[in-house]
Amino acid sequence: MLFRIFLICLLIFVFSTANFAQNKQSCKVTKNLGGKYKLDDSYTSLVEGRGIFFLRIKLKPKNINKGYLLEVAQRIKETYCNENIIYAEIWDSSDKRIFDDLTPPPIFPPWARAIYSLDRIENKEMIQFISSDKITDEIRIQN
User: Fold this and answer.
1) CB count in 10 Å sphere of residue 88
2) I need a labelling partner for 6 at 20 to 30 A (CA). Which of 24, 49, 95, 125 fits?
3) How far apart are the two ends of the chain, measured CA to CA in Å?
4) pTM to 2 decimal places
5) How are the residues of the chain apportioned to helix, strand and coil, as percentages rounded to the nearest 5?
């Protein structure tokens, strides 16, 4: 009897995941696309009833510039093509701070070197970054 229950649960799981998999297209990243980064954390959360995909990535300090960040944005768009709303914090890889569940980082970390957001529903995209340690060097790229 226990085996039958297990088998039924297993079949339900297999068929339900197969249905979900059919609804999502496979994301393909353009070959030779630049903008490589190290993924530190990712999760999806509901904010005001909308599912937002959050990323925390790290880049080498020398790569925090307009050209490279545009490549990172393109890579994120292609890698997570099934996500409607994406919010990415881009950190300097030399920052060694570590957060756990007991001491989570604040919502908008002041030490993030760049922020990238994409809203495919409203067709909005933004990159905001600090090119040096001075906040006055802040540059925004919007479409």
Assistant:
1) 23
2) 24
3) 60
4) 0.69
5) 30, 30, 40
Strand-pair partners of 115? 89, 128
Question: pLDDT tens digits, the chain, 143 residues: what are they?
Answer: 666 675 565 556 555 444 343 446 788 888 888 899 999 889 998 888 889 999 999 998 888 888 999 999 999 999 999 999 999 999 888 766 555 556 555 544 556 788 999 999 999 999 888 776 555 455 666 76
Distances (CA, A) of 62 to 94, 100, 103, 118: 11, 27, 29, 24
H helix or E strand, kind and range, residue 5? helix 2-23
